[in-house]
Amino acid sequence: MLWYSIAPAAVGAVMAAAAVVAIVFASASIDYWTVMRFFGSRGVTLAPDAWKDHAFSRSLPFYLFHLPFYSDMLGFAFGFAILCALVFWPTAQGP
Fold this sequence. Notes:
This protein is an all-alpha fold. It has 4 helices and no strands.
């Protein structure tokens, strides 16, 4: 009984200490000027072909949406989501 009363508090304390350590490391590794440039450029509208790759002359949408790796990953994620739903539904119907 003592273990059941102490263990949740101990796990919660360890998780809180890990969260504080993660916040310290994350705040040390964030470049605040990059964050400010991102938020400052959100209202800027550019043409879709404003950025070109210097090596292969490809536009940014090619690298974000048309590469075979990304389309394969999208298909995998979609299939995995359907598989998870098909496994979840029968198990949720059980007693």
